[in-house]
């Protein structure tokens, strides 16, 4: 059997058109040996959850710069759970005010990353989150 | 947690459950024991789907075309719209082993339709335009009741013709402006085309591309013959949907031709025999390796790499059980 490949969906929910961050992280995770499904701009939470289901991903990475994270992120997580994908880890990157981070984590987000985060750190956190839980 | 549901994955897939399908596809893609056992149980339900390959050079618009085709199939009016699955293969990086799978980017229009299922897969080191398990994944989708399975290859050049072995119908997508380099592509990939599409036909140079391809077809098919399939040449603009209905008609016409001439059955037979032979080879090899014993095997390899015996001698020794070489 082949080595376990981590599958990640990178999506940009909402209406802001800045996908540079999403592309950089997608490329960095590819370089870290993961299979990255890139879905691009202007995705509704429904589209993201459906893509995550069809692709059977381990991780969903959401890039949000519009300020709508408190509306969009919990909705994505709710839909993932409704689809039976409780095991999928959700990471958020972008411009997220500090006081919103605990709110997102309470909603089920594994980690939130702001500008200046090293991509290596993100890749390592994803690897830990996915492979760490499979040991037991 | 995920393990407990593995046992009834097959039944859930046959009942049309999408999450179970997604998970089973992962098992099959990773060639796990669960995946292999499921394939065996699903076999009686396979053989019904029309497998349609979509191949062509990078950037010709294969994904956009797959998106449009799926959309158009779902809106067919004169019959019950078929359920459509898309398997989209993108290359794995030879350096990191990772992959960026971007085909979904062009398939947003069908993403909410429960009659459509899109799965991206990485080539994982296989050459030929597909991944090693693409054929098996197509079988799962077939068993799950998708009547049309579109198989999009990695951006292909001259030798990525593996899809011709798997698909019943192969669409080769070309686009204007690829220059004279296209001549090189023609020799390899055009030979497997059942349908030729010139996409982005609204761009300058489209007429040239069409003329070149038509001339090539005229050379290959100098006379009208009923018993030979001459690939239709379709001009299309995937971004607007132009030409998509002609492609769907051509796909159906090709299927009718395959069925009428008995080639459909022959292709299925050839595919099954190929699959059987590679399974047999793998099984025989595994069994023989067990019989021969690791130590004997390693000793022979050692003598071979020291050039004490030739590769032919090494094989003879292992197969015929000659006593080990005395030094």
Automatic annotation (TrEMBL), chain A:
Q: Where is the B12-binding domain?
A: 5-133
Q: Which domain of life is it from?
A: Bacteria
UniProt keyword Isomerase present:
yes
The residues forming the signal peptide are: none
Gene3D superfamilies in the record:
Cobalamin-binding domain
Query: Keyword Transcription regulation: yes or no?
Result: no
Recorded GO molecular functions are: cobalamin binding; isomerase activity; metal ion binding
Give the record's keywords alphabetically: Cobalamin, Cobalt, Isomerase, Metal-binding
Q: Which cofactor does it need?
A: adenosylcob(III)alamin
Name any one Pfam family assigned in the record.
B12-binding
| NCBIfam families linked | acid_CoA_mut_C (TIGR00640)
**Protein name, per record:** Cobalamin B12-binding domain-containing protein
Species of origin? Anaerolinea thermolimosa
């Amino acid at each position: 059997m082949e080595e376990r490949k981590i599958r990640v969906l990178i999506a940009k929910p909402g209406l802001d058109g800045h996908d540079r961050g999403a592309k950089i992280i997608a490329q960095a995770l590819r370089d870290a040996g993961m299979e990255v499904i890139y879905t691009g701009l202007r995705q509704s939470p429904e589209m993201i959850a459906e893509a995550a289901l069809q692709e059977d991903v381990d991780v969903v990475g959401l890039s949000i710069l519009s300020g709508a994270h408190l509306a969009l992120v919990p909705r994505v997580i709710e839909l993932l759970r409704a689809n039976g994908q409780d095991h999928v880890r959700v990471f958020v990157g972008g411009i997220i005010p500090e006081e919103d981070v605990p709110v997102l984590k309470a909603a089920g987000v594994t980690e939130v990353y702001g500008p200046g985060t090293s991509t290596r750190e993100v890749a390592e956190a994803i690897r830990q989150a996915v492979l760490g839980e499979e040991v037991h | 947690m995920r393990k407990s549901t593995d046992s009834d994955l097959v039944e859930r897939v046959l009942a049309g459950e999408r999450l179970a399908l997604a998970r089973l596809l992962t098992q099959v893609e990773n060639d796990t024991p669960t995946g292999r056992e499921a394939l065996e149980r699903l076999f009686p339900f396979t053989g019904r789907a029309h497998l349609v390959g979509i191949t062509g050079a990078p950037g010709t618009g294969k994904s956009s075309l797959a998106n449009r085709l799926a959309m158009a199939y779902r809106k067919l009016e004169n019959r019950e719209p078929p359920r459509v699955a898309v398997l989209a293969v993108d290359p794995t990086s030879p350096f990191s082993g990772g992959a960026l799978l971007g085909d979904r980017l062009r398939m947003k229009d069908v993403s909410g339709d429960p009659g459509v299922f899109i799965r991206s897969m990485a080539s994982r080191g296989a050459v030929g335009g597909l991944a090693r398990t693409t054929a098996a994944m197509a079988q799962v989708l077939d068993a799950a009741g998708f009547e049309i399975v579109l198989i999009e290859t990695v951006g292909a050049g001259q030798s990525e013709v593996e899809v011709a072995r798997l698909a019943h119908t192969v669409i080769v997508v070309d686009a204007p402006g690829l220059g004279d380099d296209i001549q090189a592509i023609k020799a390899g990939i055009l030979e497997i085309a059942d349908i030729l599409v010139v996409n982005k036909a609204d761009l300058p140079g489209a007429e040239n591309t069409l003329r070149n391809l038509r001339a090539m077809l005229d050379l290959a098919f100098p006379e009208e013959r009923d018993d030979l399939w001459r690939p239709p040449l379709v001009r299309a603009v995937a971004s607007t949907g132009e030409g998509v209905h002609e492609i769907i008609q051509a796909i159906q016409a090709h299927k009718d031709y395959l069925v009428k001439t008995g080639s459909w059955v022959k292709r299925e037979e050839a595919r099954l025999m190929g699959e059987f032979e590679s399974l047999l080879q793998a099984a025989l090899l595994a069994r023989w390796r067990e019989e021969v014993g690791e130590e004997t095997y390693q000793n022979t390899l050692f003598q071979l790499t020291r050039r004490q015996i030739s590769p032919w001698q090494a094989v003879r020794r292992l197969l015929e059980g000659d006593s080990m070489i005395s030094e």
